[in-house]
Amino acid sequence: MTASRPAVGKIFLAFAIIYLVWGSTYLAIRVGVHEMPPFLMAGLRFTAAGLVLYAWMRISGVRSPSWREWKAATVLGTLMFLIDYACLFWAEQRVPSGIAAVILAAIPVCITLLEIIFLRTQKLTIRLALGLLVGIVGVAVLINPSASLGEAPLDRGGAIALLVACAGWSIGTVVSKRLVLPQSKPMSAAAQMLSGGVQLLVLAVVTGEFGRFQAQAISGKAWLSLVYLIIAGSIISYTAYVWLLEYESPTKVGTYAYVNPVVAVILGAAIGGETIGRRTLLGMALILVSVVAITTMKAKQNSMVADAASSRAAAD
Fold first, then answer.
1. Cα–Cα distance between 125 and 111 in angstroms, integer?
2. Shortest CA distance to 75 belongs to which of 199, 167, 163?
């Protein structure tokens, strides 16, 4: 905390940005991928956002990453952008944006499982086990085709892609602890986004998306969604996020992780015409209860879960 706090209105505006804008990015992705190839759209988003953020940091006097730091950023770019966002953008052609946001909200559950099973850095207590079980049941409710509770079953490929996205980001979070990254978080985020964006563009070339892409056939609405993701979703929101951390506790700022899925579900229904049924509400409630329980446990204060939320902030 700093001694001189800004006006309450500015604090409120910054929270509104990270709550509403990040929650709306899932719908913006869905709007865009209905017309744009998913890997190309994701690549354009993160390459542009990464370049702008990198230039901003250099103008601000932050040194460029060393060769070792660039290699580390490239590893994370593969796990947390190439894998995560390639799967997310591809899945949103098939899965409602609100449900995609809710499933990805389970990333802390996945990270905690990695900590317990592979890293042995987290002890499995009864309370933690219950929290994990609730989250796993929540995901199962959303993706189980035989118990859709009146809603249309999720596309199997889309559901699997979202689970892979969760795994990619979670593994990247674990790996990041063993890598040498730039001390400046914004510069680190810029390097990861830029690296991941370039890899996504390469994937678009390999899969033939560039050959099928016709810019003149894309509507203004789809182009606007891409611009919105770059400027509002990645640059403005991340600036508000970093600024908030100077005046509010990470725990309070991190509440965006609970609010964003709710915003995504509401916007998906109100603007995107998506259905909010019993399955969506039950799955969302279970996953959010699980995430709140896991992230607020005293035993988790030094966990990677908080860092995961912080690093994903730069991307969303």
1. 16
2. 199
User: For the chain (length 316 residues), average pLDDT per consecutive 10?
Assistant: 76 94 97 97 97 96 97 96 97 96 94 87 88 95 83 92 95 90 93 97 97 93 97 92 86 85 96 93 95 73 57 62
Q: What is the pLDDT of residue 31?
A: 97
Cα angle vertex 55, ends 27, 194, to 5°? Answer: 50
Q: How far apart are CA 244 and CA 12, in angstroms?
A: 10
Angle of helix 84-91 versus helix 185-206 axis, rounded to 10: 60
Q: What span, in angstroms and rounded, lies between the C-alpha atoms of 84 and 279?
A: 24
Of 57, 43, 52, 58, the C-alpha closest to 231 is 52
DSSP assignment string, the chain: --SS---HHHHHHHHHIIIIIHHHHHHHHHHHHTTS-HHHHHHHHHHHHHHHHHHHHHHTTPPPPPHHHHHHHHHHHIIIIIIHHHHHHHHTTTS-HHHHHHHHTTHHHHHHHHIIIII--S---HHHHHHHHHHHHHHHHHH-TT--TTSPPPPHHHHHHHHHHHHHHHHHHHHHTTS---SSHHHHHHHHHHHHHHHHHHHHHHTTHHHH--GGGS-HHHHHHHHHIIIIIIIIHHHHHHHHTTTS-HHHHTTHHHHHHHHHHHHHHHTT-----HHHHHHHHHHHHHHHHHHT-GGGTTSHHHHHHHHHHHH-
User: What is the pLDDT at residue 1?
Assistant: 47
Spell out the domain ranges in the chain: 8-315
